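Running co-folding for D-mannose.
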Amino acid sequence: MNHLTKIKYLFLVMIGGYLMKLSFRWYGEDDPVKIEYIRQIPTMDSIVTAIYDVPVGKVWSMESIKSLKSKVEDSGLNFDVIESVPVHEDIKLGRGDRDKYIENYKQNIINLGKAGVKVICYNFMPVFDWTRSQLDKELEDGSTALVYYKEQVDKMDPLSGELSLPGWDSSYTKEDLKDLFEAYDKVGEDGLWDNLEHFLKEIIPVAEANDVKMAIHPDDPPWPIFGLPRIITDEESLDKFLKLVDSKYNGLTFCTGSLGSGTFNDVPKLIDKYAAQERIHFMHIRNIKLLEGESFEESAHVSSYGSLDIVAIMRALHKNGFDGYLRPDHGRMIWGETGKPGYGLYDRALGAVYISGIWETLQKENNK
Ligand code: DNO
């Protein structure tokens, strides 16, 4: 911890500040996990949510944002982080109605800023968000988890129109998908970078003016899938991304599981680097067990259950006085719970308490 960070840290501790803000993803009224239950998780600060019934690319009305904010605040939690405001494919492809969609995106930043939102998470993955081969793989202890087995993914046919994962936009028809795949083939990696740069140069000034920090989510997994380009994958690409628009408002959602599934990424080292630059605004803490050859299983958060050292990760954040938002990411399904894969209550709550236990230890060690 450098001198200034230490002073800021000690000051915050004195006034009862908790620095890192623990948050939890909630899918709104339709989420089987009740917001009142989330409130009961110790040290919980905020809800991470979004408006889910507006098609990608449209403006979220002030009315719907306010009503969501009230629901969250009535439960005693803060409404500071939105995950996600999705980016329309026309923006990523630099085609069609891109200008209109960028204007709409700016309006969403303005509206969310007015409602007091501090961080917006988004991604720039073509067509599909996160990808897994199975959502309910039974682990040794009888719990189930999301897994990515390369040999199974290689056999999947995304153009069949039959594949579906909870993170994907299911409104595409077979024809839409065919058209998108052809368009991305032409755009390629370089074109995707150009389109990302254009998007950032348009939206970051609006984010600055409205005091909303933008936080891109890395590609999950961090390599191309189904022949579609993926560009936010490793240190080189994160450096390149942050330089496209060199502003604090152009930052990262650092997802340990996404970046960590690439063996080429040293997760604690990357966190140390980008937290020191104050470019991490939102953390997703997930553990994964790396298997041979681009395959992995999601595990319990505890370090010894996966391949990531969660204590080293939290230490890298703490060392840099991280005062952003952090949420436990994907949990397994345990204790017979059913619901949204990766987003049940129980295992994520265990993860949350494990994480805040590590944080408390680091704070107390530091105060000695
Ligand atoms: C997976 C999530 C992602 C994330 C988006 C952000 O569980 O972390 O779906 O929300 O990529 O836009």
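Result summary
The chain has a mean pLDDT of 93.
Residues 3-366 form a domain with the TIM Barrel fold (CATH 3.20.20.150).
Job closed.
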